[in-house]
Specification:
By secondary structure, the chain is mostly helical. It is built from twelve helices and no strands. The structure holds a DNA duplex.
Length: about 210
DNA sequence: GACCAGGTCCTTG
DNA sequence: CAAGGACATGGT
């Protein structure tokens, strides 16, 4: 990671801060956020909210319930998020991981972020982004979430690091504060929704920095 | 009808 | 290791 990438990223973050400031992002209980992290894979958040609502109605919105439930019940509750069969398997893998290894989510707080991250990455269906979302938004850890938007916006703006290095770059530039991590990721997604539809995100961002 | 969405896994070259 | 396909529904 080059020095100029750090400077550029600092400028982008500062711009987004004044542009958006405090915005609400990913509310919900620890377990709801974990479930939502799987459901939102390649899926709009509005559809995830509907699915979470259905799971709540069916008493399925907890890891313990997912653990013991028949897969078919979960499938019908989350159908509107797409990929509902694989996502059901992934939710069950996640629930098994937590319950078999930790009994409950609170017990996970005894383990360091880097160990938890390695463990989560071994769970079927949990890749880097889902693991970091769970760490950052469900477990309040400092593990920055890099998604496709972030990579695209940074790339357009001249920060060409790939995902793994981008994560390190953000973590070296941001203050050591979980809230800052949460907000910053929220800004990037917000910005992407506003400008990336027409693939002009980089142009706009460069202009914004002048 | 085409294209994409807050990814991940598996298979190929 | 990069690239491409599968997974699937819903919105524009």
């Amino acid at each position: 990671m080059s020095l100029s990438s750090e400077k550029l990223l600092e400028e982008i973050i500062s711009f987004l801060d004044t542009q958006y400031g405090e915005i609400p992002w990913w509310p919900g209980s620890t377990e709801e956020v974990m479930i939502g992290a799987v459901l939102t894979q390649q899926t709009r958040w509005t559809n995830v909210e509907i699915a979470l609502g259905r799971m709540n109605e069916c008493g399925l919105c907890s890891l313990a319930a997912i653990y013991r439930s028949a897969g078919s019940d979960i499938e019908s509750a989350i159908r509107c998020t797409g990929f509902y069969r694989v996502k059901t398997k992934r939710l069950k893998s996640l629930a098994s991981f937590v319950i078999d290894n930790y009994c409950d989510v609170d017990s996970m707080q005894a383990v360091t972020t880097s160990i938890l991250r390695k463990e989560l990455l071994c769970v079927n269906g949990i890749g880097a982004e889902t693991a970091d979302s769970i760490l950052c938004y469900a477990l309040n850890r400092r593990s920055y979430v890099i998604d496709a938007y972030t990579e695209r916006i940074c790339g357009c703006a001249g920060i060409t690091e790939k995902k793994g290095l981008l994560k390190s770059l953000f973590e070296s530039v941001l203050p050591e504060d979980n809230q800052a991590y949460r907000l910053c990721h929220a800004w990037f997604v917000e910005y992407a929704k506003e400008y990336c539809g027409n693939r002009r995100c980089g142009e706009c961002m460069i202009k914004n920095l002048k």
